């Protein structure tokens, strides 16, 4: 971030001192650049594709993912296994934290050197698929080189954008409400259950706030995945075709539900809620002790557990759990211009369908997509937090509803706008109705 | 950077800023010019590669719908649509403009005042004054660093060091960085705290003020304040001007601290959505690089305009003792 400042710092000065003579030169150079640069870059892109392995048969694939140290270790081991079985294939591995990952991925793509294989999630899959950055995996699925036959149908289909299989589900997850079990037991409070209504949840949270002196529930009004489940329970959806699947009245009701919760003292104060909205997984309020529950994904439970000594539990979000679905926790995608598409797809297939590797990777990227292997992994698991999250998700899978469509272009903006509008209401700067109006208008222009 | 050196205090009177005036008439101008360019070439090539070409490209992109992911050869020319959207239908753009103006208008004068005040205090022959100069300069060495911003956020949390300090004197603090009413002010304090760089320049300027002027003033019975007002300030005005221009430009470009404080979102509720942060989000998160390029060019022109205004008003209050300019 920092290096961005100095070069521009001098620019205005130069601008101010520019003489008429250089201004003419400037125009000429601009026109020249405007014409030639796109041509040059376009040419480079056009001749860069479809070139298979070098004469010695050696292939080096670049692969890029986000995550922590643990994931990095597991993934590196998994890729080593692939190299062991296919000695001519090696990997150039790059990984980093989630924050900034997509900026980097976009920049790499713009620079004409995107990784052959990259990790992506449903916030950005459509952005990349709609611009033909991702390879359509349908062909490989049909000729059997990529085997999704053991996947739940709705899981692999959650990678389909405009009829193209843009991403391969690296794992499955679903919404999970994680709560601090130790805190509840200590105060003689009941644990939340799957299937309790939103009203019941908020009443329960109010009770927790009173008895345990810890705010009962994180305010979920800015949490897009909670809003989404709630919408589905009202018979609506986040998106419908290329439009929004809800009305401004729906948003108002959602914001009012949470205003009620705040008024009853069921949630933390707005600044703490903001902290919860802004933070990454390791500092969720249930972990930092600032709330008794956090709204996350079921498979994140083991990760949360690593950051606290308290016992944690996990249930579905309130309301009818059939509104939840088998979501691809994240995908593996292949760059369409990769020189080694076939090998890259084979690596993908290996990562999700090879028993040894899947056992190694465990639930780090969600429950294994391959159902046969999921069973093997869950039989083997020893970590109690991981065991619990697998049990809960397997149970929920019995009632999963159909998967919604993958979020459309502009989704990341929609999420940011939801946070903004919800926080306006949380800080009391706007009424729920005003915040809903603002959110709805912003969404409309974000997806336009 | 012609701008940054021209009004500087150290070039006064020795004529080195106008080399051409001293040239002998019979020299071979062409050969000398060529040699000059050869010596310049490393810098010139660098300028072209990392500044000029990307800047021109961004000007071109500002008239397109470039979204980073689509190859440049396929971008569509959209004319002035990006500029139109900025000025007519993007509320968050105007919000960012307001936040940035507020930041610059408050933080820059206070920072300069702090720098000048401390420079005056340190411009004395006290024992250990050198140590204090270094200590006050220290924060600006840390610059716009990410680590500093992280420390700042933790200090001004609800349970941060600053509130613990307030609690000692019986004041109940606020969640400064997580409160939309206070988050930007917290960033201002951070910017002001880093007054070391202008302070050092002020100190250098103060050393240049001839002591005879103060002696003459005190012989005439001028009070300390009157000496400051009628001697120090006018003599220091070129340095003040220099610092003002530089710090204003820096102030408008504040990015790092806002980015870190808000996790790259400009929150809470867009209260720290500085212009450059908004630009960054548009380009890299929303993938609207064409639009972001348009924002960058409007920004460049705005800063250029402000600088021009400074220079054109400067002649009314900036006093050059050698009569230059």
UniProtKB/TrEMBL annotation, chain A:
<dbReference type="Pfam" id="PF01547">
    <property type="entry name" value="SBP_bac_1"/>
</dbReference>
<feature type="region of interest" description="Disordered">
    <location>
        <begin position="1"/>
        <end position="20"/>
    </location>
</feature>
<dbReference type="InterPro" id="IPR006059">
    <property type="entry name" value="SBP"/>
</dbReference>
<dbReference type="InterPro" id="IPR050490">
    <property type="entry name" value="Bact_solute-bd_prot1"/>
</dbReference>
<dbReference type="InterPro" id="IPR006311">
    <property type="entry name" value="TAT_signal"/>
</dbReference>
<protein>
    <submittedName>
        <fullName>ABC transporter substrate-binding protein</fullName>
    </submittedName>
</protein>
Automatic annotation (TrEMBL), chain B:
<dbReference type="GO" id="GO:0005886">
    <property type="term" value="C:plasma membrane"/>
</dbReference>
<keyword id="KW-0472">Membrane</keyword>
<comment type="similarity">
    <text>Belongs to the binding-protein-dependent transport system permease family.</text>
</comment>
<feature type="transmembrane region" description="Helical">
    <location>
        <begin position="103"/>
        <end position="123"/>
    </location>
</feature>
<feature type="transmembrane region" description="Helical">
    <location>
        <begin position="135"/>
        <end position="155"/>
    </location>
</feature>
<protein>
    <submittedName>
        <fullName>ABC transporter permease</fullName>
    </submittedName>
</protein>
<feature type="transmembrane region" description="Helical">
    <location>
        <begin position="182"/>
        <end position="206"/>
    </location>
</feature>
<feature type="domain" description="ABC transmembrane type-1">
    <location>
        <begin position="97"/>
        <end position="310"/>
    </location>
</feature>
<dbReference type="GO" id="GO:0055085">
    <property type="term" value="P:transmembrane transport"/>
</dbReference>
<feature type="transmembrane region" description="Helical">
    <location>
        <begin position="294"/>
        <end position="318"/>
    </location>
</feature>
<dbReference type="InterPro" id="IPR035906">
    <property type="entry name" value="MetI-like_sf"/>
</dbReference>
<dbReference type="InterPro" id="IPR000515">
    <property type="entry name" value="MetI-like"/>
</dbReference>
<feature type="region of interest" description="Disordered">
    <location>
        <begin position="1"/>
        <end position="27"/>
    </location>
</feature>
<keyword id="KW-1133">Transmembrane helix</keyword>
<dbReference type="InterPro" id="IPR051393">
    <property type="entry name" value="ABC_transporter_permease"/>
</dbReference>
<feature type="transmembrane region" description="Helical">
    <location>
        <begin position="227"/>
        <end position="246"/>
    </location>
</feature>
<feature type="transmembrane region" description="Helical">
    <location>
        <begin position="37"/>
        <end position="63"/>
    </location>
</feature>
<dbReference type="Pfam" id="PF00528">
    <property type="entry name" value="BPD_transp_1"/>
</dbReference>
<keyword id="KW-0812">Transmembrane</keyword>
<keyword id="KW-0813">Transport</keyword>
<keyword id="KW-1003">Cell membrane</keyword>
């Amino acid at each position: 971030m920092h290096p961005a400042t100095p070069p521009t710092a001098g620019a205005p000065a130069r601008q101010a001192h520019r003489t008429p003579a250089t201004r003419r030169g400037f125009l000429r150079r601009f026109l020249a650049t405007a014409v030639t640069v796109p041509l040059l870059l376009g040419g480079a892109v056009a001749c860069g594709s479809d070139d298979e392995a070098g004469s010695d048969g050696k292939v080096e694939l670049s692969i890029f993912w986000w995550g922590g140290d643990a994931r990095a270790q597991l993934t590196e081991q998994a890729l080593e296994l692939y190299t062991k079985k296919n000695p001519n294939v090696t990997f150039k591995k790059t990984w980093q934290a989630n924050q900034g990952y997509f900026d980097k991925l976009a920049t790499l793509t713009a620079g004409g050197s995107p990784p052959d294989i990259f990790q992506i999630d449903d916030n950005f899959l459509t952005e990349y698929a709609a611009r033909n950055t991702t390879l359509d995996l349908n062909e490989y699925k049909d000729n059997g080189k990529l085997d999704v036959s053991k996947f739940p149908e709705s899981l692999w289909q959650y990678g389909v954008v405009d009829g193209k299989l843009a991403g391969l589900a690296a794992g499955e997850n679903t919404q999970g409400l994680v709560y601090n079990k130790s805190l509840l037991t200590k105060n003689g409070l009941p644990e939340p259950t799957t299937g309790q209504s939103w009203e019941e949840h908020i009443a329960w949270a109010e009770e927790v706030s009173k008895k345990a002196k810890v705010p009962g529930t994180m305010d979920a009004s800015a949490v897009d995945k909670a809003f989404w489940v709630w919408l589905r329970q009202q018979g609506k959806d986040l998106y419908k075709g290329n439009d929004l699947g809800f009305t401004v009245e729906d948003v108002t009701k959602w914001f009012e539900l949470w205003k009620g919760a705040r008024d009853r003292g069921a949630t933390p104060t707005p600044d703490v809620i903001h902290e919860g909205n802004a933070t990454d997984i390791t500092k969720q309020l249930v972990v930092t002790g600032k709330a008794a529950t956090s709204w996350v994904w079921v498979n994140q439970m083991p990760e949360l557990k690593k950051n606290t000594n308290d016992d944690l539990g996990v249930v579905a979000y309130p309301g009818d759990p059939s509104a939840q679905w088998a979501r691809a926790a994240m995908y593996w995608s292949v760059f369409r211009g990769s020189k080694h598409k076939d090998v890259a797809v084979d690596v993908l297939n290996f990562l999700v369908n090879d028993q040894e590797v899947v056992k190694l990777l465990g639930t780090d990227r969600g429950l294994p997509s391959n159902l046969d292997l999921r069973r093997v992994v869950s039989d083997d698991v020893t970590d109690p937090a991981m065991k619990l999250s697998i049990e809960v998700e397997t149970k929920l899978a019995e009632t999963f509803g159909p998967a919604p469509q993958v979020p459309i272009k502009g989704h990341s903006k929609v999420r940011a706008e939801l946070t903004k509008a919800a926080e306006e209401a949380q800080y009391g700067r706007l009424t729920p109705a005003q915040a809903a109006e603002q959110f709805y208008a912003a969404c409309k222009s974000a997806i336009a | 950077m012609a701008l940054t050196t021209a009004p500087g205090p150290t070039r006064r009177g020795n004529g080195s800023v106008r080399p051409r005036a001293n040239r002998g008439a019979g020299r071979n101008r062409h050969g000398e010019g060529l040699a000059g360019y050869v010596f310049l070439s490393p810098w010139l090539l660098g300028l072209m590669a990392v500044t000029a070409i990307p800047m021109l490209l961004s000007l071109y992109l500002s008239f397109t719908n470039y979204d980073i992911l689509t190859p440049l050869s396929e971008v569509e020319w959209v004319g002035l649509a990006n500029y139109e959207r900025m000025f007519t239908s993007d509320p968050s753009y105007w919000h960012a403009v307001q936040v940035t103006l507020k930041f610059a208008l408050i933080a820059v004068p206070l920072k300069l005042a702090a720098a000048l005040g401390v420079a005056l205090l340190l411009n004395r022959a006290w024992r250990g004054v050198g140590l204090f100069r270094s200590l006050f300069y220290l924060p600006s060495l840390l610059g716009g660093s990410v680590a500093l911003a992280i420390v700042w956020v933790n200090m001004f949390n609800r349970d941060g060091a600053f509130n613990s300090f307030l609690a000692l004197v019986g004041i109940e603090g606020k969640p400064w960085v997580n409160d939309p009413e206070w988050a930007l002010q917290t960033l201002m304090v951070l910017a002001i705290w880093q007054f070391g760089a202008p302070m050092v320049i002020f100190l250098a300027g103060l050393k240049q003020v001839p002591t005879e002027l103060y002696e003459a003033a005190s012989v005439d019975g001028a009070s300390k304040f009157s000496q400051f007002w009628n001697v120090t300030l006018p003599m220091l005005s070129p340095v003040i001007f220099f610092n003002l221009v530089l710090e204003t430009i820096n102030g408008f470009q504040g990015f790092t601290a806002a980015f870190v404080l808000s996790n790259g979102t400009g929150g809470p509720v867009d209260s720290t959505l500085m212009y450059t942060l908004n630009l960054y989000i548009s380009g890299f998160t929303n993938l609207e690089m064409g639009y972001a390029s348009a924002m960058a060019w409007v920004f460049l022109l705005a800063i250029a305009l402000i600088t021009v205004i400074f220079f054109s008003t400067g002649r009314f209050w900036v006093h050059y003792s050698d009569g230059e300019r």
